[in-house]
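Need tokens for this chain, all 374 residues.
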Amino acid sequence: MAKVQLYLIQMQMLKTSYISSVLAASLFLLAACNAPNEESGEATTEEVALKTQTVEVVNPTRRSFNAELHIVGTARPNQQVMVHAMEGGYVTSIGKDLGDYVVAGQVIAELRNPELRRSWEKASAILDGKKSTYDRLKASAEKTPDLTPLQILEEAKAEYLTALAELGAIQDRQSFLRVKAPFSGTITQRFVDNGALVQSGISETDATPLVEIQQLDPIRLGIPLPESDAGIVKLGDSVSVSFPELPGVSFKATVSRTAGVLDPASKTMDLEIDIDNSKGNIKPGMYAKVIMDLVSREDVMSLPVQAQHLFQDELFVLQVIDGVVVQTPLRRGLTNKDFFEVLNSDLDSNSAVIVQGKGLVKQGQQVDATLRAE
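Here are the structure tokens for all 374 residues:
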């Protein structure tokens, strides 16, 4: 009896497994029938939505507007130099220290060179001998011309003048032992102390400098001007300068000088602005915020700044032409916080430029364009 019951249970399990397999196969066939046929070109719901993405567009309009250029600059000294000795020796005194102000021509340090002193003494003795010989022959030639040949007199004169020049050269070298400030400014670094041995900055390429001097009034503000603005800014343009480290203080100045050429690597042009720093508040190395007022031409084609599209570090606009997205390289002129000047010849007042939905579409995609209301 037990064997019969076991046999019935096994048969029931096999029947249940068979029904489950049939049901699973039916569901699989039903799903396959409902799936989109890739070869027939049928699209999924997501693909249809992607192809019919709705975007908002605007038409370029003509306007006249004042554009402001906001850019960051760096404060630099008006002049800066490492002061070297032009003659070697050891430092006997250095009268200026870090932070001291010096005027042009003021002695900063004094050196001593015993070897140079001995050279001067030797040259002085030679000069005295040559001068004595020349004076004697000259006097003899004047009294008894026949007894003093002209050639001997001329040779004595040449030797005298040579000795005089050699002594003058040594005296010049001795004057270099007094190191003077080349211009008025502040000592910003000091490199030697009393007793230090220094080499000539003229003959030695790795000579140790004595001090560094910076002229801090006026301050020279350096600005890397972008290529797009290099042709707009000119000498004498008014600028407003502020420093984050000096809150509540602004400076009015003008463009002092421009390099006139672009750096091949950075595609920027160096521009400099001189700023009065008689109070000494501006320190070299400070960052400055610079605002330049640039006046656009009258009645120029313009677009909202939202129309710009950055792709692979290049600026584009996305047009809708016959319902298809077309990516167009942007030639931009002046710009402010709301609009920018369009220099493209292939854009006009009838062009439909996307301002909303740029990140949802791509080149060649079908879209529904809605014109933004003014």
